[in-house]
Each structure stands twice: as C-alpha cells, then as structure tokens.
Amino acid sequence: MIVRPAQSGDIAAIAAIYAHHVLRSTATFDVDPPDEAHWHERLALLTAKDWPFLVAERGAACVGYAYAAQFRDRPAYVYACENSIYVRPGEEGRGVGTQLLRALVTAAKAAGFRQMIAVIGGAEPASAALHAKLGFVEVGRIRHVGYKFGRLLDTLYMQRSLDQSSRS
Ligand SMILES: CC(C)(COP(=O)(O)OP(=O)(O)OC[C@H]1O[C@@H](n2cnc3c(N)ncnc32)[C@H](O)[C@@H]1OP(=O)(O)O)[C@@H](O)C(=O)NCCC(=O)NCCS
Questions:
Q1: In the chain, domain spans
Q2: CATH 3.40.630.30 fits domain 2-161
C-alpha cells in the first residue's frame, strides 16, 4: 500500500467511501452524502492552500483518505488544523488508518500547522483508538450534541502537538 497526494481521479472513490460512512455510521454528523462536485471543490481548496489531502492506494484501488484543513476559519487559528480520515468499508482494522494518519501528521507539520485536532463524532471507539495510537490525547467532550439514527451522540475532541520535536 502507498500513501500519496489525492488527485481528481480519486474523487469518485473518496465520495463513495464518505457516502458509506454518512449513511451507516455516526462518525460523521452529515446525513446526506455530498456529491462529487463538493469533493472536487474541497480538493481544489486544500491544494490551493498547500494543505494535505492524501489517499491510501492498494493495487489500483483507493482504500482510504485523509486530509487536514485549518481548524476554524478565523485568522488566529492559522496554526491549528482539524483532520478527517475515512477508510473504505471492508478495509478497516488492517492498518490503513494508521499509515494514513501517520503520513497526514508529517504532511501537516510540513504545511506549517502546529496543532492537530480530531473532532470525533459519536466518540467512535475505532477513531479514538487510532488517534490515541498516534499520540493524540482527549481534550474535551460535548455530550449529546448530535442526534442521528435515533440516538443522542457525543463529540470527542482529541489533540496532538505537531511541534517539530513531537514524534510522528
Ligand atoms: C477510524 C478509522 C479511520 C480507523 O482506521 P483503520 O484502518 O480501521 O485503523 P487501523 O487498522 O490502523 O487501527 C488503528 C488502531 O485502531 C484500533 N481499532 C481499529 N478498529 C477498531 C475497532 N473497531 N474498535 C476499537 N478499536 C479499533 C486498534 O487499536 C488499532 O491499533 P492496533 O493497530 O494497535 O491494534 C476507520 O475505522 C474508519 O474509517 N472508521 C469510520 C470513519 C471514522 O470514524 N473516521 C474518523 C473520523 S474522526
């Protein structure tokens, strides 16, 4: 498996991966999958900003993606990014997320970010475990802030320093 920058040819696979998780999981609070145009715009925006958007590729198939963008739009958040990481259904638990997140941390450091924040919808155990493995620590939880599939959901915040001295 390789991890490389996303290209426009990956958009159909990225949209399909995200659509699966929108429709079947509480990891995202979206309820309607965005169309491919949304993903083309996102890729163009991140590319223009020099922010990382990576895909994991095995054979010719995209088995996951991850990107990092400024945590909030307001200018003083300039050194803080929020990550997003999704693995193709059927590929979870095989190390794809670990490789993607490790590469994303390195790329976000290179892009000049100094903190990375994971906003974990539904406090998903797999996502929390992945981030803990890569050195993120829990920094907050908003209880019952979401409602999806008939359930009230927490959002868990985890954070990792990207200072050059931090391990990756
Ligand atoms: C969360 C996600 C990205 C993890 O990717 P992955 O490829 O499955 O993760 P890995 O196989 O690299 O496993 C990383 C760690 O997570 C933990 N983990 C994986 N699946 C788990 C599960 N179902 N339950 C609990 N922990 C789990 C393991 O501890 C593993 O560490 P180990 O290698 O020491 O055993 C993936 O499961 C996914 O796409 N989930 C749905 C979307 C999502 O939650 N995205 C995150 C949004 S913030």
A1: 2-161
A2: yes
